[in-house]
Each structure stands twice: as C-alpha cells, then as structure tokens.
Design brief:
The chain is an all-alpha fold. The protein has 15 helices and no strands. It is globular. This is Sulfate exporter family transporter.
Amino acid sequence: MASNAPSSTSDAGLVAWLLSLQRHWPGIALCAALAAAATFVAGLHRGPVMLYALLFGTAFHYQSEEPRSAPGIAWSAGTLLRLGVGLLGARITVEQLAGLGTATAALIAGGVATTLLVGLLGARLLALPRSLGVLAGGASAICGASAALALAAVLPRHQRSEREVLTVVVLATLLSTIAMLLYPLLARALALPPQAAGLFVGGSIHDVAQVVVAGYALGQPTGDTAMLVKLMRVALLTLVVAAVALAVARGGRIEAPGKRPPPLLWFLGLFASLVTLRSLGLLPTAAVTLLDNAARGCLLIGVCALGAKTSLPALARCGWRPVVLMVGCALWIAGWMLAAALGRG
C-alpha cells in the first residue's frame, strides 16, 4: 500500500491539472485568438496594438459571463498578465542603468515619484478613489498599461477595480500614442540636442514600443538615450509596486474596500531575478529575445482578457474626471522631463 501512495498522489495531481486545463483553455484560446487578430490589424494599420487588443476584447464582453469561457478569461486577466510583467525584467541590465549616471537617475526617480504624488493629489481634488490615483500616477510615471496592471495586482479588489484598470489602460495607450506623434516635433522645434531629446522622449512617453518609434525618429543617438531612460523607468516598477503593496499590507493611505492582497508577489521576484541574471550575463541573446516576446504575448493576451471582462458602456460611465486625472499626470511627467532636457540643452 505504501509503495502505491506516491503513484496515487501523482495520478491525482495529473487529473487535477487536466481538469483545470479543461476548465481554462476555452477562455485562454479566445483571448489568444483576439491577441493574434489585434497584432495583425495593428501591423496592417501601424496602430497601437494594446488599444486594438482592448477594443477587440470588449467586443467579446459577453464571453466573460459564459461558464465555459469565463474561467480562462479570468486567469488570463490575472495570472497571465502578472507573468508578462515579471518577464519584462529580461529587457534590463544594471550596467545599462548605470550608464545613465547618477544625476540622470535622480531626475528620472524624481519624475516618477512626483507623478505618483500628482496622481494621488489629483484623485483627491477630483473626488476619485485613491486606487485610481495610484493607477493613473503609476501608468504615467513608469510604463503605461504594464505598470497599471502590475499596480492593480497589489491594490485591494472592489467592485470598480476592473473598470478603473481598463480606464487607465485605455487612456494611457491613447495619450502615449499622441505623445509619440507630438513629442518628436516638439523636440525638433526646441532644437534639443540628441541626449536632451532622448531624455525628454524616453522620460515622458508611456509605452516602450512608442519610445522606440519616437526616439529613433530623431536619430540613432537620441533613440539610444531614450531607450536607456525608458529602461530606468521600467526598472523602478519593482520598487513602486513593492512600496504600494507594503502600504496596502500595513493599512496605509491607499484605501479601497475589499480584500487586501498578500504583500509578497511572485511576479516581482521573477522581474528582479531576470534583471539579475541578465546583468550577470547568464541569459544568452536568444533567451532574452524569447523572454521579451513571451512578455509581449502574455501582456497582449491579458489585455484582451481585461477588455473582455469590462463593457464599453461601463467604461463610458466613468465620466470626464478620470480623463482629466490622466491628462494631468501625463502633462506633469512631460513637463518635468522637458524642463530637465532644456536644462541640459
């Protein structure tokens, strides 16, 4: 009997895994198909793929209420999204960040910190939940949709959670697209030198891909600087999310009704581990490329799932105040980085 126990345990585990897969795969497959469609359309029209993913997801909102697809959609909007955020760490090395210098690092850290404060203050002035202020400030300060999704994972859950996250993701994507088009023109109009222009573009545009487009549109030196500055902002994601999680766990000033999540987050550990491994040269180029593509895929599928869980009418009911909050945060970080760039120009 004893010799059969390990086999029985293994069989039970396999059965449980197969049952879980059977329960989740329809929703995951739906979100993956939507992500593929969004990628195709974005490539065809050269538009923001995250925005297409959100819109495609909302078109299938009814599937989030279907018993067959709901579990997979919920898993994609939660666990898979967090995995994507964790895998972003493969993009970053400590050496890259050190190359910016302490003065630039301090400017970027100051921009991130003050934008978070602007989000909290703006939410208070506009009579919006503090959780929305954290999401808006974090998305504007760090890396748009990815930051909002990471922060949402540590904020207490409540009835408005998904609507708030989707609102911030949509607005961050739209504002980042506008910035991608306008900020290079502004840098040219002000005759900013390459390093100063890279500091401005990389320090103020939300999405990584759009920083690439805007930075290299101004030339190779500007693009290289913009990417390093953007990586510094992304690297601060772990610290910011950990700080918010600690504030929530201690009953700090981030208040929202609902269950408090655990302060220790596996995806932050994954993020930090990948940064460490790449910094030590233990990740070959092929592995970095694979992990980066995996991160994009997880985030894209997760955003489709997030869209599927929220209807457009519900999003429209959020009103004008979240728009004002997001625009204010975006203008603050842009003004901060532009002032720094002009000081160096």
